[in-house]
């Protein structure tokens, strides 16, 4: 990697291995404006906001410039400022500026930079053809009138997720981002992961907003609103209230939700414990039966959708377990039937998730009983933040309150479900016969934890050597399958999470760069450290919750078959 | 067989390029040379064989003016609208054709599927302006009247052959 000294605005700045000049400038404490630059994605150089001027007055984009020794650049010359303002003005000219009522208002990068650069007047008219609004997807909404053609969504869909559902079409003034043939998202193989909305700097792709439905249910006295909160939500929700990423705000959230009018608040980690036990038992049964291997985890609905759409032959390899959210929903609705009959109210179940694909999962016919979904509504972390703010509630000032019993209790291994490697580690804790701290320590230091996109570990379970792989970022899973097909590698268990860094990096979370997501993951591991019970099978409420059901009833509630005959 | 396009033939063309992504444009050109346009089924087949997203194939196909995603007529009429032809009144010829073929809005192909009307920026025959080509046969120094007569003649021939 290149090493040397650069001069930024006359100041000496050393560089050591930074991939581009933009990264060096940011390291020097100057925040360069960008729309199309993400360190995880390929360099595109389209938005031209990060332009710099060299000694000869040549202007070029710093994101696509290699740092070299002796390079001298200016970041804020009069010409550059003029160019940036002009670029912003032109972007705004072909942008639907109904900002105050936009879903993204307050969180919009275009709005932020227009403010920062003092663009107060747009001299040009918007003559573009009005393209259709697309709200066909259960997860995201596309509004092409707000697209600035930065291509972030196109690249994340292709490079990180490996789907390539949307791309540019046409050219010049008529250019647009669209699925092929101008189709709607529901007519494509879109898996609802929502990462396109997570990188969109404007309101062109936003998460499908269901706040209205949530408020209606909360204010309906005939409904008992019962909430479950996913692990990854608690370590991200504080970011919107000025708290550091990774701070566990579960107990404050319980108080806030009760103040807002929610009747009961539970913890999805209970569902995660159910999943761990069911999945580990299934895994042991497969070990005894000799396959089919690899067994894939089934918690991630976008991953399931990918297999259904593009690789159905592997559906038989997927664990038959429902996701923690759906296990929880099925058990809750079953348990509350008696309660509903008693007081005449209907239980309305809201799941707060870091994920947009969960909205799609909740609407699947497999997860409904007599036409009523087990999870009535999924809200993302960002949606619950908006609702808390709308209520005027200052989350950091809330008193602490534990989730309700009995389903408000989960083990430490349930909490780590929210990060890449967590599901595999929970299953490993269950399967390993040694129940002492030594096992936990060993797993903590194993490759099951970490941020590399594909990690593998070998564990000794009762004399059998089992190989586990952990993969996040769906394209990495696709590549891993190719390597398995080529006979290069094989595993017994593979944990797949579609979003990079796992659920903490889900598209329903507040927008943030990768380091924030890793801090959230660290927050989950800290919660696990301080948990009284660290293993799903030691969850003290588990036996009670499952008592009285036959084997068959339990299987019906907790398992699902995705394979189409 | 969809719209007269043989998918076996399409696959053969893709395979003749070793199903290489880098040959995407050449593959599309060859298929278009054969069938005059690229149908959605063709683009989906290309995406599948080249293992890229169909949105990417659509992206490339719509970037180049040369690729057509709509079925074309038996006779492709190109009216030159380069500078020389334009000043020598190619526009009235274009309008006369549209009127004769009853083309409306963005419609380019006549309802009977016989003619497709296009404009080109220059045919390189400015001395013969205004120029019109029908299936690559050049007709020089055209007028709206001569154009309509030509169309009527083709229509008559087609009717006789039918």
Give your account of this protein's structure.
The complex is a heterodimer of chains A (565) and B (162). Chain A is α/β, with parallel strands linked by helices and 565 residues long. Chain A folds into three domains: 74 residues, Roll (Ubiquitin-like (UB roll)), CATH 3.10.20; 119 residues, Alpha-Beta Plaits (2-Layer Sandwich), CATH 3.30.70; 347 residues, Rossmann fold, CATH 3.40.50.1780. Chain A has a five-stranded mixed β-sheet with strand order 2-1-5-3-4, covered by helices on one side. In chain A, strands 11-10-13-16 form a four-stranded parallel β-sheet, sandwiched between helices. The relative contact order of chain A is 0.11. Chain B has 162 residues and is an alpha+beta fold. Chain B has two domains: 57 residues, no CATH class; 87 residues, Glutaredoxin (3-Layer(aba) Sandwich). Helix content of chain B is 48%, strand content 11%. Chain B has a four-stranded mixed β-sheet, with helices on one face. The model of chain B has no long low-confidence stretch (mean pLDDT 90).
Name the features.
heterodimer; A: 565 residues; alpha/beta; Ubiquitin-like (UB roll); Alpha-Beta Plaits; Rossmann fold; 3 domains; 5-stranded mixed beta sheet; 4-stranded parallel beta sheet; 20 helices; 36% helix; globular; B: 162 residues; alpha+beta; Glutaredoxin; 2 domains; 4-stranded mixed beta sheet; 4 strands
CATH architecture group name of the largest domain in chain B: 3-Layer(aba) Sandwich
User: Could you say which overall geometry of chain B the principal axes of the C-alpha atoms support?
Assistant: elongated
The strands making up the biggest β-sheet of chain B line up spatially as 2-1-3-4
Radius of gyration of chain B: 18 Å
Name the helicity range of chain B: 40-55%
Tell me the fraction of residues in β-strands of chain B, as a range: 5-15%
Q: How would you sum up the major sheet of chain B?
A: 4 strands, mixed
Largest interface summary: A-B, 15 and 15 residues
- Overall mean pLDDT score of chain A? 93
- Can you count the beta strands of chain B? 4
CATH architecture descriptor of the largest domain in chain A = 3-Layer(aba) Sandwich
Give the N-to-C terminal Cα separation of chain A.
Answer: 53 Å
Number of alpha- plus pi-helical segments of chain B: 7
Number of helices of chain A: 20
């Amino acid at each position: 990697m290149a090493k040397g000294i650069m001069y930024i605005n006359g100041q000496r700045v050393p560089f050591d291995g930074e991939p581009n000049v933009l990264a060096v400038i940011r390291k020097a404490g100057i925040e360069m404006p960008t729309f199309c630059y993400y360190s995880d994605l390929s360099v595109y150089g389209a938005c031209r906001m990060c332009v710099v001027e060299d000694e000869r007055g040549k202007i070029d984009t710093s994101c696509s410039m290699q740092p070299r020794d002796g390079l001298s650049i200016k970041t804020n010359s009069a010409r550059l400022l003029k160019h940036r303002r002009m670029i912003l003005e032109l972007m705004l000219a072909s942008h639907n500026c109904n900002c105050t009522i936009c879903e993204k208002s307050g969180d919009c990068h275009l709005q932020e930079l227009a403010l920062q650069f003092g663009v107060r007047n747009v001299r040009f008219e918007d003559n573009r053809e009005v393209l259709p609004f697309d709200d066909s997807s259960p997860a995201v909404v596309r509004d092409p009138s707000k697209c600035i053609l930065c291509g972030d969504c196109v690249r994340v869909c292709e490079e990180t997720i490996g789907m390539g559902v949307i791309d540019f079409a046409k050219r010049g003034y008529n250019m647009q981002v669209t699925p092929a043939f101008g189709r709607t998202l529901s007519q494509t193989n879109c898996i609802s992961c929502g990462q396109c909305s997570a990188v969109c700097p404007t309101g062109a792709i936003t998460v499908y907003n269901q706040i209205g439905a949530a408020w209606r249910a909360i204010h309906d006295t005939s409904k008992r609103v019962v909430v479950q909160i996913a692990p990854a939500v608690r370590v991200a929700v504080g970011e919107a209230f000025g708290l550091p990423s990774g701070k566990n705000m579960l107990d404050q959230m319980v108080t806030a939700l009760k103040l807002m009018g929610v009747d009961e608040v539970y913890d999805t980690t209970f569902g995660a414990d159910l999943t761990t036990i069911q999945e580990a038992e299934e895994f042991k049964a497969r070990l005894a039966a000799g396959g089919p291997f690899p067994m894939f985890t089934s918690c991630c609905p976008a991953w399931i959708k990918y297999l259904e759409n593009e690789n159905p032959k592997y559906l038989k390899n997927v664990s038959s377990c429902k996701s923690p959210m759906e296990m929880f929903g099925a058990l809750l609705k079953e348990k509350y039937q008696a309660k509903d009959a008693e007081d005449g109210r209907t239980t309305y179940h809201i799941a707060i998730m870091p994920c947009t694909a969960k909205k799609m999962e909740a609407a699947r016919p497999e997860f409904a009983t007599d036409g009523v979904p087990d999870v009535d509504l999924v809200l993302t972390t960002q949606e619950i933040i908006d609702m808390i703010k709308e209520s005027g509630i200052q989350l950091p000032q809330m008193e602490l309150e534990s989730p309700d019993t009995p389903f408000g209790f989960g083990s430490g291994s349930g909490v780590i479900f929210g990060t890449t490697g967590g599901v595999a580690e929970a299953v490993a804790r269950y399967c390993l016969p040694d129940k002492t701290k030594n096992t936990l320590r060993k797993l903590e230091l194993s490759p099951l934890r970490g941020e590399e996109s594909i990690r593998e570990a070998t564990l000794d379970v009762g004399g059998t050597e089992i190989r586990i792989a952990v993969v996040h970022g769906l394209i990495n899973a696709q590549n891993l399958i190719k390597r398995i097909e080529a006979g290069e590698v094989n595993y017994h268990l593979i944990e797949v999470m579609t979003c990079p860094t796992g659920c903490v990096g889900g598209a329903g979370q507040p927008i943030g760069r990768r380091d924030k997501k890793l801090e959230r993951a660290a927050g989950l591991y800290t919660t696990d450290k301080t948990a009284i019970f660290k293993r799903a099978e030691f969850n003290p409420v588990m036996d009670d919750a499952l008592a009285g059901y036959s084997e068959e009833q339990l299987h019906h509630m907790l398992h699902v078959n995705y394979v189409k005959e | 067989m969809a719209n007269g396009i043989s998918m076996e033939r399409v696959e053969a063309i893709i395979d003749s390029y070793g199903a290489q992504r880098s040959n995407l444009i050449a593959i599309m050109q060859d298929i278009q040379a054969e069938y005059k346009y690229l149908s959605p089924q063709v683009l989906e087949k290309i995406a599948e064989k080249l293992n890229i997203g169909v949105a990417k194939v659509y992206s490339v196909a719509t970037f180049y003016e040369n690729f057509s995603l709509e079925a074309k007529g038996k006779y492709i009429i190109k009216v030159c609208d380069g500078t020389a032809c334009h000043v020598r009144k190619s526009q009235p010829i274009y309008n006369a054709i549209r009127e004769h073929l009853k083309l409306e809005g963005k419609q380019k192909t006549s309802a009977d599927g016989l003619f497709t009307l296009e404009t080109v920026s220059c045919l390189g025959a400015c001395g013969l302006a205004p120029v019109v080509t029908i299936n690559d046969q050049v007709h020089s120094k055209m007028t709206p009247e001569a154009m309509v007569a030509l169309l009527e003649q083709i229509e008559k021939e087609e009717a006789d052959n039918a």
